């Protein structure tokens, strides 16, 4: 008798879970998912913080500032997500994004033909190239840890 009750309870819980999974995400479930993700990230940040504080050398001296700034940035991003009512995209939004990406890919084929290039296409390509080059330069500066040249000992 007890095993039948337990089996019925398990089946009921499984049906409830199946129903919840089949329904689309609404704002409340998106908020809960965001809160769950933020708590997971906070736990991970705390674990990294504890390991960084125990790290010897120069990194150990600045680790508290790095961890503090990353936590501040995370909390700001979380607050922006809440205020902007951001959630997970619906399947319709994914379909629209996929169509836009395919349209962009088709337009890219047109850009490859240099005989038929327009001023608008050339301008777009120049802006994208400048943006990529800018990110490359910022990456170099970060890698060198200096704005100009390498620090030599």
Automatic annotation (TrEMBL):
Keywords: ATP synthesis, CF(0), Hydrogen ion transport, Ion transport, Membrane, Mitochondrion, Transport
Any single GO BP term: proton motive force-driven ATP synthesis
First and last residue of the signal peptide: none
GO molecular function, a single term: proton transmembrane transporter activity
Predominant localisation class: mitochondrion
InterPro entries with a match to the protein in the record: ATP_synth_F0_gsu_mt (IPR006808)
Compartments it resides in: Mitochondrion membrane
Pfam families cross-referenced by the UniProt entry: ATP-synt_G (PF04718)
Cellular-component GO terms for this entry: mitochondrial membrane; proton-transporting ATP synthase complex
Homology family: Belongs to the ATPase g subunit family.
PANTHER family tied to this protein: ATP SYNTHASE SUBUNIT (PTHR12386)
Stated name of the protein: Mitochondrial ATP synthase g subunit-domain-containing protein
């Amino acid at each position: 008798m007890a095993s039948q009750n337990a089996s019925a309870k398990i089946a009921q819980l499984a049906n409830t879970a199946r129903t919840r999974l089949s329904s689309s995400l609404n704002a409340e479930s998106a908020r809960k998912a965001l809160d769950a993700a933020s708590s997971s990230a906070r736990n991970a940040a705390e674990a990294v913080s504890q390991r960084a504080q125990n790290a010897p050398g120069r990194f150990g001296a600045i680790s508290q500032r790095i961890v503090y700034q990353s936590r501040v940035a995370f909390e700001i991003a979380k607050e922006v997500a809440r205020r902007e009512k951001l959630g997970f995209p619906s399947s319709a939004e994914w379909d629209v994004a996929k169509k836009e990406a395919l349209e962009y890919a088709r337009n890219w084929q047109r850009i490859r033909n240099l005989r038929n290039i327009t001023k608008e296409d050339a301008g777009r390509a120049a802006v994208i190239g400048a943006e990529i080059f800018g990110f490359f330069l910022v990456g170099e500066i970060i890698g060198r840890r200096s704005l100009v040249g390498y620090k030599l000992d």
